[in-house]
Amino acid sequence: MTQDNAANAAHDLWRELEADRLHEECGVFGIFGHPDAAALTALGLHALQHRGQEAAGIVTYDGGRFHAEKRLGLVGDHFSDSRVIERLPGKAAIGHNRYSTTGETILRNVQPLFAELESGGFAVGHNGNLTNAQVLRRQLIQEGAICQSTTDTEVILHLVARSRRNRFVDRFVDAVRQIEGAYALVALSTKKLIGARDPLGIRPLVLGELDGHYILCSETVALDIMGAKYIRDIENGEVVIISEDGIESLKPFPQQQMRPCIFEFIYFARPDSVVQGKSVYEVRKNMGIELARESGVEADVIVPVPDSGVPAAIGFSQESGIPFELGIIRNHYVGRTFIQPTQRIRELGVRLKHSANRAQVEGKRIVLIDDSLVRGTTSVKIVRMMRDAGAKEVHFRLASPPITHSDYYGIDTPEREKLLAAQMDLEGMRQYIGADSLAFLSVDGTYRAMGYDSRNASQPQFTDHCFTGDYPTPLADLDAEGKNVKKRSLLAEAG
Amino acid sequence: MTQDNAANAAHDLWRELEADRLHEECGVFGIFGHPDAAALTALGLHALQHRGQEAAGIVTYDGGRFHAEKRLGLVGDHFSDSRVIERLPGKAAIGHNRYSTTGETILRNVQPLFAELESGGFAVGHNGNLTNAQVLRRQLIQEGAICQSTTDTEVILHLVARSRRNRFVDRFVDAVRQIEGAYALVALSTKKLIGARDPLGIRPLVLGELDGHYILCSETVALDIMGAKYIRDIENGEVVIISEDGIESLKPFPQQQMRPCIFEFIYFARPDSVVQGKSVYEVRKNMGIELARESGVEADVIVPVPDSGVPAAIGFSQESGIPFELGIIRNHYVGRTFIQPTQRIRELGVRLKHSANRAQVEGKRIVLIDDSLVRGTTSVKIVRMMRDAGAKEVHFRLASPPITHSDYYGIDTPEREKLLAAQMDLEGMRQYIGADSLAFLSVDGTYRAMGYDSRNASQPQFTDHCFTGDYPTPLADLDAEGKNVKKRSLLAEAG
Amino acid sequence: MTQDNAANAAHDLWRELEADRLHEECGVFGIFGHPDAAALTALGLHALQHRGQEAAGIVTYDGGRFHAEKRLGLVGDHFSDSRVIERLPGKAAIGHNRYSTTGETILRNVQPLFAELESGGFAVGHNGNLTNAQVLRRQLIQEGAICQSTTDTEVILHLVARSRRNRFVDRFVDAVRQIEGAYALVALSTKKLIGARDPLGIRPLVLGELDGHYILCSETVALDIMGAKYIRDIENGEVVIISEDGIESLKPFPQQQMRPCIFEFIYFARPDSVVQGKSVYEVRKNMGIELARESGVEADVIVPVPDSGVPAAIGFSQESGIPFELGIIRNHYVGRTFIQPTQRIRELGVRLKHSANRAQVEGKRIVLIDDSLVRGTTSVKIVRMMRDAGAKEVHFRLASPPITHSDYYGIDTPEREKLLAAQMDLEGMRQYIGADSLAFLSVDGTYRAMGYDSRNASQPQFTDHCFTGDYPTPLADLDAEGKNVKKRSLLAEAG
Amino acid sequence: MTQDNAANAAHDLWRELEADRLHEECGVFGIFGHPDAAALTALGLHALQHRGQEAAGIVTYDGGRFHAEKRLGLVGDHFSDSRVIERLPGKAAIGHNRYSTTGETILRNVQPLFAELESGGFAVGHNGNLTNAQVLRRQLIQEGAICQSTTDTEVILHLVARSRRNRFVDRFVDAVRQIEGAYALVALSTKKLIGARDPLGIRPLVLGELDGHYILCSETVALDIMGAKYIRDIENGEVVIISEDGIESLKPFPQQQMRPCIFEFIYFARPDSVVQGKSVYEVRKNMGIELARESGVEADVIVPVPDSGVPAAIGFSQESGIPFELGIIRNHYVGRTFIQPTQRIRELGVRLKHSANRAQVEGKRIVLIDDSLVRGTTSVKIVRMMRDAGAKEVHFRLASPPITHSDYYGIDTPEREKLLAAQMDLEGMRQYIGADSLAFLSVDGTYRAMGYDSRNASQPQFTDHCFTGDYPTPLADLDAEGKNVKKRSLLAEAG
């Protein structure tokens, strides 16, 4: 068992590093009518790689048959091989990047998922999380459905398959009317590419165009990489149907104000993406500027925690006039594979990934800027690393408010009791982290960085429950269970 | 494309060699209550490896959860690894060896298949072929079922899941009452190990016992390898339920006379197995003896086509008094992996697998003994090899009757028009093969070798339609289609 | 460590099974001037696969550059891939199958080995074992040579490289004059294919021809597989040089009587090979006939230990009139990969590979025929298996004399103290094995089976020291060490 | 061939991207006397990963035997596995990261290389390039040496093996006295760890200490990652011998002024390293400051080409007062594996790796800062990307002088005719790249950034021939050949 223990311990270290970040489950892409459909989907998924690194899948339809390729690992590891792309013929394709929150990263869970109807097959890729998937799954199984994956997404397939409607689009609408929570969906039938966004627009989905063919994708960077044109964001509660006849829009839900997830701006989206019309990089810089205004401090250098803290640090530096320096260097070669063979090396922990740039730190008063604080375990180590490198003072600044509540809409957050800000007050956190001072951006400061005067408490502009506890939808699974039971299959299977 | 062409051509050669043999789809194994359940199942599958070499799977239940491991390749390639076995905890296990008749050897088709019911999960492994699976599948999809595999076996899972009965055993019986064709099933629920054999007992299933725990398996050799005791063959149309309370037997079908598949004796079962109380080796030797009686010939040596012709050749030699010699040597290192890189080498064909033992052949009159004749393509080459090695006369003798009809019960036979005996008369076949004389064992001779005076035409003792055209069950799928449509999914997926 | 222990234990079981057989180190093949040189070499190595299964290598020369491919595993696993063959251009090729006697099966030990001279490169493949390799290696290292492999063969390369002669052939002859022991060599320079056999002709090497191009190979089966013509055996002490100018023969050693290794006939060569003009199958059958004459016994059936005991068993049966039956069935799917995950299964041991055919054994007096007896560990288990299957009497007959001495010429024999016949007398062995009677073929009987009246004690016709202790050459390494030190590098490297 | 063509084309694209950067061959690490020697060596190589990403190797000595593990790929892919580390017992270890300049990335070329002397074994790892390796290799082969690798490093092993001296250290000094060019060596014998730096100190090597045990490594970051203490840089022409008796220093060469490679500061070393007492990050920032002074321009934003242009861009921004913004975002998931399956996608080229951050670029006058200009192929694309994103003006600034000469000391530079600055004048380059203005840092500006008033033309402080053509050593191989013949073996071998 020694070896497994070592591997477990190493995996634990990685998990510890990872567990102190937020994770999103997935990016989606779809294209209709393009001769290079599969290759472009691979390229789009590559641009969306930051949304999910554990697995990727592409399904195409060639006019007669569907073709699927699903692989664990990065998009570039498999889907850049022309032999794989050649096994994906057809002019219509959808693709999916997966980040898995459970240990069950097995192929049968990798999306897009596929099902056969009497009228033909269809495939679905999903970014987000359904809050009533367990309740629906239980009903479906009672009725004799056989679930092959452990994903909430499979529920959608069963709802489509069981719909009494005839046309695929009607079945699809039937299905989405039954699900709750957050979703950006791409679906492919024998005749149509469909996109759908939940009634609040929690997860993002944009429409683009290349060579006269429509594209659906999670972020604009997937358009940029292939020189495609951005058309518009899909609206909250909108279902778009793309076929040879062009594009059609349905609004099967009662009208609601949009409430996109604020974390796309703070952490998830790539800085060069434009989400809901806003440059993500600009928003993050603004957060740094607001933070400098709210919680300025006398110091010699502004040091970002790479890479996510960089835009806010640039903003903080520009607003405060204190020079921006790379006081921490990131090792780009660290991957999930780096396990640590001995106890001694495990203790080195964070140094595998980050190292102090002593020349910029020694004898200086530094302001460390990070995008957000989750468990605080990494922050403790980074502050210590700065002190070991000779920092005279370490002021920690977070370019977002304290995270006090878990997410159920597709962000992999720890249980509430593991969120540092849910356990301690500001002074407690400062002591835990070991900083000379600690400050978070206020909720209103965050909204100011987004271009609003403040949060509209009666009708909030964003989904921001992690900071406020204000969950925008019912949480049926959670209520049913009394607690958030992990989605576990009765079957454990390695892949 | 050059390379793929070469690989295809090579694969074609292998297929050509393989296509001239009969193949059975699968072996099954199950054990209940034994602490080494998974390891013993791996061992049993190893002993049944001859029944399916493309993939293997094991499902265990540990009292709380099911665990599955499925792998392409031989049992020994994967399931002899203690790490794999350790991932299969529990005292109850079922396993399956797969021979795939289509190109779609992908993991989601590998058995045992698993499904979750409201009352818990269950897994099924199947040897045989259902003759109404397509008809049932179409109905199920119309009703909104989602099929994940392209196997006929999945239909059984859906029927169980949709049954209105409560107890798992009742649901299982509900399901088997709807299926037609040939099956030996092992199923595992949270409380029970179930075995079932179709109403005619076409495919074999035996009951054994080790250390006080029951075992179900396709052949007695899987008992012998672990020192387990043979108890009895499961009867035709019998369902046995093994639980902590012991063993129970159900007979949910109207009583019928058993009619096991005669090819188990001729070709499939291992010679050291005892099937329906008969030593397979003895039966094959008897076939050689009967053949010598029916179609004796003046000759110098009896040469078996290795390895399947050996027992009959021993019988023929003993009956005729002509010495038995290994005039053909088999290369045991030939596997599916041996593809042929150049055209020249492809033409060598059969020599990769068999070579002439010139010293026993040169200048001699030889009687070649093989178990059966399918397309004849290999036989042509073997006769030519004998002549190239200097044989003076080559008399070809087959220890079974001419195969004139395709099988739909789990034997992978070519379409009828590719069966040599369906196309030509005896003299035509002799000329095609290039032998000096050719003879088949008669149908009655075959039954005599089995211990009967002759075939009982009104109530045949065996399923023998390949020789007689007398199919023992309706063929619903075939009738529905007008022809035997290949089971193809709408989804092509590589694995 | 559990897992490694399990893997080790399992590996130990396999080693136990394997350790009770003799092993030969290697087969060689060379062809000159043929456009399909690499593909034919792969095919020849495939036919010689029984001489070494751990690794294979091919070196070609394309007129400008040498190309090498070396792989662990079977020939068919890698060299049947057209992409590998395409990386081996050129009309001249040599190849090598390796059986490794130590744990160091790493790529740098896989032959053919290659070296660069000022005048160009050359490659060498070697079957056999040098008895003064350690002595020579030590001298070479003293002189500053750097050895990269741990093989005795590398010594030959250094001797060629250091020769003061100019022409490659002269350097090669210089080198072979310094080495002692057993060798069949194929060497490839930029202009020539060279074959060489040691002064006594201990290891085999034959000359053939295909499409007008010469072939050198260990056994005639490598000619048969490609339809090549056998020309003659290379003589003992002969060096043949094949070039565009044809073939030339050198005899650089004093004339001696040939003394080929007797074990090629008893065990190593394929039964369909013709070695030194004798059919191996015939010789083995003769050994069975002589054995029946010397040690006949009242019995019901003759049962061969498969597969090596079959020809002798056929001879014994024909001579004695007792019927030959397959009382033991071999599982062809057992490979080195079959490790046993639990202690219980490890104890099953031999049953993974062999099983009793109870119908032929139960209640019978059986004569078990095997080719030779090494440690006896497998024999014990096979006798017990026969008794478990109900044998009334078990008479064990070996178709060769007792092995009392180790080999140093390329056969992997255990140390002398582990050879059963070196430890016990006949009655001791009988009791150890648990047989009712035990008999070996006499040395003179063995020579009679080879066509001689008896062994010529003053000038023995064969290398037979394993039976007689009469080593045909000096054993310099052994003398230097006082004992047979394992060839270990100072460097342990995994591959 | 289609597929291979596609793979080649894709590989070509990658090579095109890579070919426009400079590459260094290798990083080295050694540690003596530490119980965790292998694990720490793996960790050190991980910190030095930027110096070579194609392969890594570690050799340890356990008091009785050497152990080696060599793998293609990143350090973390293999050497973070405790099973690999466990196969490397011993308290002394050396390791090596390799960047391969030729196609022959095969295991036998991966360092450290090992050889056996009469007195025991030794291993060597080498960073740098010998300028007389081909001349020496030819001599060695004439004398009968057998070269197994195609590396210049193997020459050192042969020189050590052939030395007439007795002690290993004397043999080693004998060897380094014969080699010319650039080298930082770590060597391990049964008793000693040796480090050596060429007479000019072209390649770096530093001495550190952890828990009282000495460490040798290429850069200080390898010390930082494990919390080891930096002691000093090894001097030019110094050989240090570390043993149980402590550390000893030899100076076997005539005293010379040090002349380290200037490119370590400009590009190779990690920014958080301290080389020859200078912070690499500070030097690069200074280069940006000098560049702003020499070639300032009116503009709206300073945009670094990530990641190598960042420190200079920060310096340029601070000096010029123009804001620093991330106008280009790097995709961190691009790796060597990303091949492009279709022509269309190949044309997208640089966008796989970099994308424009439109919000920071559109309508702005931007100053692009990169560290150096090699072929210019990437620069063309980046300027075009900026214009496509709406940049009003693009001013390109290089924080180093024009590269006009190839390197022969371990930097993989293109042949001279492919260096843009060797082909065109400044205005030609500006037009080729498509920038509105183009400027390079002057040679004296570069020296000022390093802390000198200017370059000392009679005794230059750095090896800077790439900018000046002033090669610091003879180039024997180049002179012998008349041109820089590629190091090719007579043997092509895949690995």
CATH class placement of the largest domain in chain A: Alpha Beta
**What is the gyration radius of chain A calculated from CA atoms?**
23 Å
CATH architect. name of the largest domain in chain A? 4-Layer Sandwich
Count of structural domains of chain A: 2
Count interface residues per chain for the largest interface. B-C, 70 and 70 residues
How many beta-strand runs of chain A? 24
Report the mean per-residue pLDDT of chain A as an integer. 89
Oligomer state of the chains in this structure: homotetramer
Give the proportion of residues in helices of chain A: 25-40%
CATH topology of the largest domain in chain A: Glutamine Phosphoribosylpyrophosphate, subunit 1, domain 1
**Tell me about the biggest sheet of chain A?**
7 strands, antiparallel
Total number of helices of chain A: 19
The CATH homologous superfamily of the largest domain in chain A corresponds to: Aminohydrolase, N-terminal nucleophile (Ntn) domain
Class from secondary-structure proportions of chain A:
alpha+beta
Beta fraction of the residues of chain A? 15-25%
Shape of chain A: globular
The first-to-last residue Cα distance of chain A is 21 Å
What are the segments of chain A in which pLDDT stays under 50 over at least 5 consecutive residues?
A: 1-13, 483-487
**Strand arrangement in the largest pleated sheet of chain A:** 4-3-5-2-11-10-12
Pathway (chains A, B, C, D): Purine metabolism; IMP biosynthesis via de novo pathway; N(1)-(5-phospho-D-ribosyl)glycinamide from 5-phospho-alpha-D-ribose 1-diphosphate: step 1/2
EC number (chains A, B, C, D): 2.4.2.14
GO biological process, one term (chains A, B, C, D): purine nucleobase biosynthetic process
Organism (chains A, B, C, D): Agaricicola taiwanensis
